TrEMBL record:
Keywords: Antioxidant, Disulfide bond, Oxidoreductase, Peroxidase, Redox-active center. It catalyses: N(6)-[(R)-dihydrolipoyl]-L-lysyl-[lipoyl-carrier protein] + a hydroperoxide = N(6)-[(R)-lipoyl]-L-lysyl-[lipoyl-carrier protein] + an alcohol + H2O. It comes from Hyphomonas beringensis. Antioxidant protein with alkyl hydroperoxidase activity. Required for the reduction of the AhpC active site cysteine residues and for the regeneration of the AhpC enzyme activity. One of its GO terms (molecular function) is hydroperoxide reductase activity. This is Alkyl hydroperoxide reductase AhpD.
């Protein structure tokens, strides 16, 4: 399945999602590696089969093997971190904020691609997973790498659209 066929599979009530998917894929504010890797990381984070297959088919030929691996790694590590850090943030007992996480996160320090690109992937996934603590941490790191507000916003927009498309596709596949 391609992104064009994914767009065609979206129902009429999701016309805005079709338009946003197309415009984000054509946006030039991010490099192709940044943009396409963020799409892939977010698609892996939501895991809806049709959306994931379409985005993988679209981006895989255009990304290096290292960027493909990093996008999947960002989804995997943020799947863990977003739950852990969101929970620490939500708990009223502040003692948890003082305890070391004791979770392996080596890929964040050595993602195999440019650090800023991996941070964008992680930011997009953190937006999908709704972890404010992680969003703040990745946004701050992206700022250190000279990323603009518009570039950072683009990663969040990608996460939002991929998430929404996947929700519609999941609902429609159940005949709702």
């Amino acid at each position: 399945m391609s992104v064009e066929s994914l767009k065609s599979a979206l129902p009429d009530y999701a016309k805005d999602l079709k338009l946003n998917l197309g415009s984000l894929l054509n946006e030039t504010i991010l490099s192709d590696q940044q943009k396409l890797g963020t799409f892939l990381a977010c698609a892996h984070a939501v895991g809806e089969p049709a959306t994931l297959a379409a985005i993988e088919a679209e981006v895989s030929p255009k990304l290096s093997p290292e960027a493909l691996k990093a996008a999947k790694a960002a989804s995997a590590i943020m799947g863990m971190n977003n739950v852990y850090y969101r929970t620490v943030h939500l708990l009223k007992n502040d003692v948890y904020k003082t305890l070391p996480a004791k979770l392996r996160m080596n890929v964040i320090g050595a993602p195999g691609i440019e650090k800023a690109d991996f941070e964008l992937y992680s930011l997009g996934v953190s937006a999908v997973n709704g972890c404010g603590m992680c969003l703040d941490a990745h946004e701050a790191e992206l700022r250190k790498h000279g990323m603009t507000s518009e570039q950072i916003q683009a990663a969040v927009r990608i996460g939002a659209v991929v998430n929404a498309v996947s929700r519609v596709m999941a609902t429609e596949s159940q005949g709702a």
